[in-house]
Amino acid sequence: MDIVEKPVVLKVSEVATKTPKTTPAAPLLTEEQILKMDEKDYMNEAQLAFFKARLQQLEKDLLKNADETTEHLRETVLVPDPADRATIEEEHALELRTRDRERKLLKKVQQSIVAIDNGEYGWCEETGEPIGIPRLLARPTATLSLEAQQRRELKQKLYGD
């Protein structure tokens, strides 16, 4: 009685061959295509997908750089010459400063990805106006429109931080 009936096997194979194939996602837009889009299309699905992919790639690059720096700093080279040692220490200090700036940028990149997921990306935090595609292409982590950023920098210049 443990014999599998042939029609059952056929039905299982039919199910396996008739499962719907997933279609690949639409290709991402290019910078030129985004710049040519009308203002009414601002922050539509395609633009959000473009910026999310750009931010995720930037995030990967920053994390990769951090890993490389960690590995590079672990390599200990014993150099007897004090001048050579000083040069190596200076290079390490410069690399650490660069990674510190990248760490801060990584935080902004991750906040921007969250903003995309929340539907808040591309809009000025102060005024609620569009930041603008050209500005976002130049600085994908921007949270202020150009005018709001200029006002903030002028205040900082006049009154200090």
Radius of gyration: 26 Å
Instruction: Identify the overall geometry.
Output: extended
Assign the structural class, choosing from mainly alpha, mainly beta, alpha/beta, alpha+beta, or little secondary structure. Answer: mainly alpha
The termini sit apart by 84 Å
What is the N-to-C order of secondary-structure elements (H for helix, E for strand)? HHHHHH
Determine the strand fraction and express it as a percent band: under 5%
Which whole number gives the mean pLDDT?
84
* Overall strand count: 0
Which segments are poorly predicted (pLDDT under 50) over 5 or more consecutive residues? 4-24
How would you describe this structure to a colleague?
- Helix 3 packs antiparallel against helix 4 (82-118).
- This protein has helices spanning 6-17, 31-36, 45-74, 82-118, 133-138, 146-159.
- It is built from 6 helices and no strands.
- The N and C termini lie far apart (84 Å).
- The protein is mainly α and 161 residues long.
